[in-house]
């Protein structure tokens, strides 16, 4: 089995990826900001699955944080065969209500970190003739939703473009575009979720299972669950303003 590196690995989809990949026998490198939570997660995964788990505290909104993860991915003596670029966050409020620095931090994590970490991981994967990169985006990539949606749209386009450039190399890249998932995402952003219907929620473990199936099938974009596949299809057909108005309100109650 190969080693998988996961960013944002202590909660939500990142933790779900860690559980599933450890269950499958992969050694792990867990990346997040909170050292205490990293150590606790690593200990639990080692005990339950008997895999090697390395922790790498790093804030991907900073140059030092991105640089530390880049260096680990470039370490040819300890190759990483699967990269999950999962770290991300949301900002509460509409454009102009959010401080500019918070928007810039979002672009650092959602765009620059994804660009640089993918660039650090892929050369070794191509040289070895196999590997996989999952870049976590969102169904928000397909509807107008400020900086968050724009950054996730970039992730989808970037992933598809790099995959095309690497055709025939044995390296798979996929953008994962989930809808609302039961995680800490909204709580951390201070967003309410009372206006999100129960049917819209997905379980993190189910999202990860479907994502890994789609990666194995060589798909460039994964949209978990039939309901969100339909939503994305509608988003591509309807005028942008129709779904954008709904999306801009969902999950933004204070």
TrEMBL record:
Which GO cellular component terms are attached? membrane
The answer to keyword Oxidoreductase applying to this record is yes
Q: Which SUPFAM superfamilies match?
A: NAD(P)-binding Rossmann-fold domains
Q: Which UniProt keywords apply?
A: Oxidoreductase
Q: One MF term from GO for this chain?
A: oxidoreductase activity
Q: Where does the record place a coiled coil?
A: none
Pfam families, alphabetically? adh_short (PF00106)
Q: Which family does it belong to?
A: Belongs to the short-chain dehydrogenases/reductases (SDR) family.
Name of this protein:
Short-subunit dehydrogenase
Q: Which organism is it from?
A: Kitasatospora viridis
